[in-house]
Amino acid sequence: MDQHPSDVLTADQAGDRERWLARRSRVPAVWARYTDLVVERGEGSWLETIDGERYLDYTSGIGVTNTGHAHPRVAAAIADQAAHVIHAQQNIVYHKPGLDLHERLPRTMPGLADGEEAGVFLSNSGAEAVEAAVKLARYASRRPAIIAFRGGFHGRTHAAMALTSSGVKFRGHFEPLPGSIHHAPYPYVLRNPTGRTDEAALVHSLAALDELFATLVHPDDVAAFLVEPILGEGGYVVPPDGFLPALREVADRHGILLIADEVQTGIGRTGRMWATEWYDARPDILVMAKGLASGMPLSGIMARRELLQRFAPGAHGGTYGGNAVACAAALATLDVIAAEGLLDNARRQGERLLAGIRRAAAGHHGVAEVRGRGLMVGIEFADPTTLAPLPELAGGLLREAFDRRLLLLTCGTWSQVVRVIPPLVTTDTEIDSAVSIIGEALAAMSASGGATPPAPPG
Ligand SMILES: Cc1ncc(COP(=O)(O)O)c(C=O)c1O
Predict the structure, then answer these.
(1) Residue-wise pLDDT tens digits, 239-281
(2) 175, 307, 334, 421: most buried by Cβ count inside 10 Å?
(3) Are residues 249 and 382 in the same domain?
(4) pTM surpassing 0.90?
(5) Residue nearest to atom 3 of ligand 1 (CA)
(6) Cα separations in angstroms, 163 against 231, 300, 360, 379
(7) How far is the CA of 175 from the centre of ligand 1 (A)?
(8) What CATH number does the domain containing 28 carry?
(9) Same domain, yes or no, for 296 and 349?
(10) Same domain, residue pair 130 and 42
(11) Helix or strand (DSSP H, E) at 39
């Protein structure tokens, strides 16, 4: 067996290590995690622990470190901005990185017509940006209702919980939650009750919307649809190509706004800046967070300027939104994505990853589907005939991969999907190594008859 670096620590280092490890129990259990690692530094696709062990991080901190860990250009921008001004509050003054970002980000808004301009409202977390999107839709339309989609995850504040339906753990025991929120089925081809084809799943979802309008809510009371272009927490579910365009059409018919929650799919994750760019469906409001500032807390919404301007001064805001250091990190993130061709790399590596995992998983017990777009790949475990979810296999793959120094995450309502989320800077060699680890892990699970430790929290 390999000697672990922890076996060769000096007494001092070992004492230091024990001190850090002992402190872990002070962190509240609500932060459930499946590793016990204490990390010291990160670089590109890699995380290094206080013991000097290196892990290939294909969680990207839940889809955040798109430019890789501690990209030198991002780190330098943060250091430089911190030395100038850290907090220059948005209700009081302007700051340079904020003004730059307000100019550059709107140019990325998908589907702007000639002469149209977009604007940005900046906040700190994904949930906060979802709140801003829903508030803007209600405020501007003076309509109360929002329709979200089953399996969607939108965050953990009260409105975001009410909009979320990817798992009861995110909203159970927190009622009452804000009202006027309805849910329609997301087209989930593998689990579609009327047949496992794109067409059947699409028809099923659209029919359910009609039923919602006939039974629960008048369409002209609906302010917005809120939808993830690809389900994230809900299982890395890629909808049929016709879904977002069909939703756009229903929205236009009834004067409903279309909000795309791109918190997980955005900033190049799927090989385009925004996943909605894959579809012919312009969002009215786009929600962003996660990779936006490479790990500094920054989120926001983008919308056509005339819509965004409907918010009267004071109608929305927040002390920290648009923090100067976070804005500098976001500008550096945009620079790195352009300079290093990361959208192309995400597309190319995504295809390599998807094909590789499909090859490695072929014939393995319980693998119901390998799907994804760009560097957003999911492996769903389920019984081949009943589709009963098999979270113990997803948890087993996580554990076996972890033992081989590859970090992955689960998702899906029953934690039955393993999601693979490399940073956009990942290389051919890293992808190949992750694929072979996943192959070895699946083989080890088959060899042990699928007997695996319990699934970690998703
Ligand atoms: C699609 C989506 N929306 C919203 C959120 C909430 O973001 P945050 O955790 O930053 O509040 C997430 C987080 O995973 C997400 O994936």
Answers:
(1) 999 999 999 999 999 999 999 999 999 999 999 999 999 999 9
(2) 421
(3) no
(4) yes
(5) 154
(6) 13, 18, 36, 25
(7) 20
(8) 3.90.1150.10
(9) no
(10) no
(11) strand 39-43
